[in-house]
Amino acid sequence: MERLGRVRRRFGFDRNDLRRGVDRRQWAVGVGAVVLFAGLAPPAAAALASHAYRTGVEAERQQAANHRVDARVTEAKSEDGAGVRHTYAVLYWTPSDGRARTAVVPADKSVKPGATRRIWVDGSGDLARAPRTHADTISTTAVAGTMAVTLVGLPLLAGYYFARRHYDRRREALWDESWAALADRRTT
Fold this sequence. Notes:
188 residues, alpha+beta, 3 helices, 4 strands, 56% helix
């Protein structure tokens, strides 16, 4: 119980006569920031995370038809740039509709014509990326919720920081005035 009393006093929830007006105003700004954070962060996190989850599940559904096929490397090209060498491969494959397809993709230097590569294609047989997994959706949702909490909290924290600096300067000025008054009283 004594520990709870110390925490309560530490955060200014007491009727201490030694607290000045500047201390009470700083305390009010801090409590206001905490109340605003508690009121704004959960709805913002829920809204952003919900949107990210819905978007991710929709992408999972759209990419569910993506599948892997074997493509043959018909040509490998290299281009030299300013200190960089790029290698591209021309891939050829025939999807289930029977129409031949080709694509130029980045490749490493070891790719030779005639080699076989596994690629992802969509339902129509066009080159596609690997389908989104549910784990990707969950991690994106978690990141979105965390970012929402951060975006709500940072301005409030910055506001409290600047208010505290202002009140600290005011508190120092009050101390200087008090010491000057005490010095005047001793000299007279």
